[in-house]
Amino acid sequence: MSFERNQILIEASKTAVRNSPYPTESGKPIYPSELFGADVFSLDTLSKCLPKSVFQDFLKQKNGRRQLEKSTADSIAHAVRVWAMDKGATHFTHWFQPQTDSTAEKHDSFLSLKATFTPMGEQITPIDSFSGSQLVQAEPDASSFPSGGMRTTFEARGYTVWDTTSPMFIREGPNRTSVLYIPSVFISYNGEALDEKTVLLRSSEVLSKAACELLNLIDPSPFASEPYYNHVFTTLGTEQEFFLVDRSLHALRPDLKICGRTLVGRLPPRHQQLEDHYFGKMPSKVLAAISETELELYKLGVPLKTRHNEVAPGQFEVAPIFEEAMVAVDHNLLTMDVLHKVAHRHDLKVLFHEKPFKGVNGSGKHCNWSMSTDRGENLLDPTVKPETNYRFLLFLVAVLYAVHKHGSLLRAGISSSSNEHRLGANEAPPGIISVFLGEYLTEVLDSIEESREVRSFSKPQLKTIKLGGKALDVKVSSLPNISRDLTDRNRTSPFAFTGNKFEFRAVGSKQSPSFPVTLLNCAVASCVHDVTEDLRKAMGSKPQPSDEDILKVVKKYIKLSKSVRFEGDNYSDDWVKEAEKRGLPNIKDAPTAFNQLLSSVNKDMLTSLGIFSETELHSRYHILMEKYAKSIIVEAETLKDLINQHVSPSAFEYRKLLAETTLALKQTQLSAQAEINVLKKLGDLVEDMQEGLDVLNAATEQVHTIEEPQAKAYYASNQIVPIMEKLRENTDAIEELVADKFWTLPKYTELLLNL
């Protein structure tokens, strides 16, 4: 083993687990519920700081019923400044989501100078101030963020605008100071969306209006002047998977530091094949880091609920309670950021890349999505008898039709250079977007389509103990009865129904959930409109549709969307063949997926709903293509450095040793055949590697001559990626041959099994 690797492993084994004391009050532990939201400027806190009339004005603005008055903004700014400074805040920042799958912030101090003119001359007085205009708006440089051509270098002006749907909060910084964070959107000088959040807010409003229109049609208010339903919001729960590795070992891997994934490296003899890591006991260092992360996130109002080991060694997951989608996205990005910072304190490095290690499971961000009314009703709750829950059936078939009609759009939303390594790799859904409903709901839809009764699902070994569930007889008298769900789960499906929500499993762990959820909202909103129009036609002049009218429409959309439903193994080759017969697109690379944004069926829908303008949509397309090409080029250049600085020198040094040993053995008239065999095999591999390196050099030189983003992305995908994959096979074979003491890069054994 190389000296650096050896020293790091020795030091890591000596490092004590970091102790972060649980918060107490008067010697008694504080309950999580008491800690929750302590650093959040909530509506309840705001209501106590403002006059009742001013607070009511703000609520009307927040709910979209009036503009925010300057006096109201000034009152809120004063209240939040006092609250934040009492908690140690010295700065404030507009916190926004540029199209980088991350967040951005610029800190400004509350400190200001006030000039007073007296007979003695100008007097400067330091004051702490924060105005309503500073709260509402700030101005970052729009030309320095991805804009897809909407902003050029000399057109720098852009605006961040306070998003009143998401609460402000403070985060602790160094030296016992804090910063007030103001969740914001980011727009250009001309008002185009430059961020991920603006379009998410638009899509949520459009879906709300479409859903309320359908709800008020089937369940009209007895009062003609007021609709029964005024708002439908999307709920989201994001299961976040990630890897943790020793920070010192990470520092010795240029590929991990630069690209977030290993570009070379072979699997150890033991990794995940024994299936013993999933739900296993967390390593002490990992548990300490995640526990500290949870405490910080509780104070920020992030409702983390679950933590556990994932399938691959070194892989873990945390998951929150469901929230309104806009807040849930903010909280997911906060979760990633806090995990990153806390891991650093524990001498760990968190990896959010979808596939940091070849050969073991990658990471996803499973987005659990549903719709709820302002009355607290989940529109995707089938209840105990879904076959007669007509409201549920209408929204269910609308979602199914949305996935069928705009599946290629959803595929575009989950595509990236990093997620390409995960999709279809027998651990995550393939590039075919399909829906899993489960046996019971499938039977319900089939029975409606065939105009018959729902078949019974009772089995001899089961006894019904309550409506909507089954009791499992495990034949152990001391065990209690448990309730079985109506349907099983399908972890191979990219879009699976899981009881009262859909789990969009194909979203990548590194990406912001904003864009995939925006596209899903848009697709569903469009198809809810279609369902509503067909229902109006079916009901004619009647004031309310009959059950027969509803079933007629439901049956139509069951038939239209039937091909997108699949209950089997999405990993199987048979499904790929079956999907082709059904006409479902099997998009295998990111550039082809991005093209779906501009296909007529998707582009017309997105622009007609007002979610994207033509300019905004084309800019997104160009940004995605550029980002893809740049990511591949960075990986290619990094791989070249790895080979030149690490793999080749290690192979050359070991080959030199073998050659010297062979010569010495021959001089002593001993057999050197074993050494000769290894030497020849290693020599062939090194020559192949050098030839591959020459090909990669030529390809990277060529890609830099291509200016058009789409052509550059396709060249990177079709030419550079295969060269890199072949080179990796070669370097991994060299790693297997070279003696460990000559290998300078930390190996998978150390990275994955050293926590």
Shape: globular
Major β-sheet annotation: 9 strands, mixed
| Percent in strands | 15-25%
**Which regions have little confidence, pLDDT < 50, spanning 5+ residues?**
458-469
- Strand count: 23
- Quickly count the domains: 4
Radius of gyration: 29 Å
The N- and C-terminal alpha carbons lie at a distance of 19 Å
- What's the rounded overall pLDDT mean? 91
How would you classify the helix and strand content by structural class? alpha+beta
Number of helices: 23
Helix content: 40-55%
In short:
46% of the residues lie in helices and 15% in strands. By secondary structure, it is α+β, with helices and mostly antiparallel strands. Strand 22 (495-497) and strand 23 form a beta hairpin.
Structure explained in plain terms:
The protein is an alpha+beta fold and 755 residues long. It folds into four domains: 1-30 and 239-262 and 281-363, Glutamine synthetase/guanido kinase, catalytic domain (Creatine Kinase, Chain A, domain 2); 31-195, Ubiquitin-like (UB roll); 196-230 and 367-611, no CATH class; 626-752, Four Helix Bundle (Hemerythrin (Met), subunit A), CATH 1.20.120. The chain is 46% helix and 15% strand. The protein contains 23 helices and 23 strands. The strands form five sheets. Strands 12, 13, 14, 15, 16, 17, 18, 22 and 23 form a nine-stranded mixed β-sheet that branches. Mean pLDDT is 91; it is low at 458-469. A hairpin with a 2-residue loop joins strand 19 (462-466) and strand 20 (469-472).
